[in-house]
Amino acid sequence: MPEKPTTRSSAVPHRPARRTLQRRHRKILQDNNIENQATQLVGKGVSPGSVVGRRPGPRRRRIFDKYGWYEVRPEGAWSTTRQAEAWNLATNRRRTRQDGVLAGLNTMTQTLEIVDAFAAYGTDTSGINIVVIGDIGRGKSSWIKTVCVLRQLVAGRQVVVLDRKPQAGRGEYTPLAQGLGAESIRFRIGGSGACLNLLDPAISRGGDHDHGLEGIVPAGQEALVLAVLTDAMGRELDEKEKAAVGAALLAVNTAAHATGSEPVIRDLAMRLLDPRPADGTSFGARWSERALEWGLEPGLALARLAERDLRGLVDSPTSPAVRDALETHPLVHFDLSALPTDGPALRVVMTAINTWLANRLAARSSRYQQTILIVEEGWHVAGGSTGEVFRANLKLSRGLGLSTVSAFHHPADQPADSPARALMAEASIVVLFGQSRADDAAETVRLYRLPGGTEDTLMQMGRGQSLIKIGSRDPFLLSHIRSPWEVELTDTDSPITGRPHPEAVVVHEAGGSS
């Protein structure tokens, strides 16, 4: 028997139709509410065109209220990597420091960055020496002059500059020194310039310094003289020659102290060439006579240096301008641009200044004076025995409060065992400017263990842009910024553009010479 067909009452609509009717009903109520609000506003004098209806807030549901859906949750909620991917927003790289000297603008975060060896020591680095590497014309000198010189002076620190690069017949830093009112101490072969005595009493003889700190002992007179002799003679001195130099050095210092004078290397040369009969007694009765002959070749080498290669540079009493340099102005400018690059003069003078400065700082190390030493074209002090003395003094930088800033051009040109390479590797802060040669960029990346692909970054950086690595921190890109006054003082394009430097015009008007 067939089933009776089911029928649905026409008075009760089916479920989809009922939902549609409910939505339309809610819409009518909302529209009526908006119309009533608008009518009330118009009745109060508001123009009908400016009336904007406000919809009621969403209705809260009981089930969501039960589980606290609409309230702030004090505890976190579980999620997945896929869901939380939208929360991975860009984050700002933290600033280098909150105290110290500003260097420029972070290229990625557009925040100011601080590059300061003294401020970074102890937290970001374990040393205070800085190396600056880059091609000529990439802004390397401007960065050093502003960040490592001008702004360090504002921070109350002492700055000493070894200015090797000539510009318009004088050192490149001469306009900067004149603008700050500091004297330029110029060295020339022949005696017409300043002199720093290789045997200056400020350079220790036994490693002892009044008012110094225990254990901080820079290279002394004997180490400096032996290094100069090794480079001048082209070989290592044997033990007999070293013993003769040490005995003669003690003798000339004792004689000078008795007369209240200052010994010089001519006195040491003549003591080696024409020793006193009693000079050999310290070697015992058996060798007392033979020991008088041990200093012949070192004496001849010192006499030649005093008469030719080093004449007027380190063979006379120290000039008053040099002796009082650290006390007269916070900026000390040693102009070495007139010294020849061939021969030992430039390297010996730079090493002698470094040793003299280290000994002066050791003598007053209890005063805790922070000092910056600027060495342009650092490879001049990296080679030979004098370079070893220079690097030995660098190892005392923390105890002396002496931060050395050295600049280099082409790392790939330095052999793997080069002293210059060792000097670059020992820096705690590295400032890398643009490189045009692929081999220089690759060698820089290998030397400082930079991330892969940094070679392209180094070769694409423009003028004034640098990649800075502080200690073990990740490197960051920096755009160097200068004030208009700093731009004038750091201008090095005058010989090329033909426009005189502003300071040169002032000197011409005041002193009659440009």
Characterise the protein shown here.
With 514 residues, the protein is α/β, with parallel strands linked by helices. 40% of the residues lie in helices and 11% in strands. The chain contains 20 helices and 13 strands. It has helices spanning 15-43, 62-66, 117-120, 140-154, 174-180, 221-233, 239-259, 265-273, 296-309, 320-323, 325-328, 345-363, 384-394, 397-400, 419-425, 438-448, 454-460, 484-489, 494-497, 502-511; strands at 102-106, 112-114, 130-133, 158-163, 166-167, 170-171, 184-186, 331-335, 371-375, 402-408, 429-433, 465-470, 476-480. The strands form two sheets. It has an eleven-stranded mixed β-sheet with strand order 2-1-13-12-11-3-10-9-4-8-7. The protein has a two-stranded antiparallel ribbon with strand order 5-6. It is elongated, with a radius of gyration of 38 Å. The relative contact order is 0.15.
Helix and strand arrangement:
Elements: H1 15-43, H2 62-66, E1 102-106, E2 112-114, H3 117-120, E3 130-133, H4 140-154, E4 158-163, E5 166-167, E6 170-171, H5 174-180, E7 184-186, H6 221-233, H7 239-259, H8 265-273, H9 296-309, H10 320-323, H11 325-328, E8 331-335, H12 345-363, E9 371-375, H13 384-394, H14 397-400, E10 402-408, H15 419-425, E11 429-433, H16 438-448, H17 454-460, E12 465-470, E13 476-480, H18 484-489, H19 494-497, H20 502-511
